[in-house]
Amino acid sequence: MTTTKDTANELRERPLGEVAKDLTSDLSLLVRQEIELAKAEMAAKGRTVAPGLGMLGGAGVLGLCAAGALTAFLVLALATFLPDWLAALIVGGVLAAVAYVLVRQGKERVADAGPPVPEQTIETMKEDVEWAKTRASSARK
Questions:
Q1: What is the pLDDT at residue 83?
Q2: For residue 84, what are the CA distances in angstroms to 46, 49, 95?
Q3: pLDDT at position 2, please?
Q4: Is 101 in contact with 58 (CB distance < 8 Å)?
């Protein structure tokens, strides 16, 4: 089993060009892996946000459809018992309440996804930088 001391001694005995080449190769591999992690993390966040955005869009479409089709019907139906202006006010209030509930639910879904930042990738990149610094400093000794 190779110890850390043995590895450090091997690095010291190797030519600097060879160590730099290995370090560059390792860093290149790490960067590619971090990019893949970022892509996967952002895709997962997108799948979480999509239903909330769909709800917000649905709320808008529902609001327009309800305002156009049902408003006239409900106002006319209530106008048989109430003055026209009061019937229109009641129908408008109910539609506004339904739209408000849908908007709140949609915003909650979007907020549950968190910020659109690949948090895992940022953390692993910080670890990779520390690893590279450690490896570079041990190769210099």
A1: 92
A2: 47, 42, 17
A3: 56
A4: no
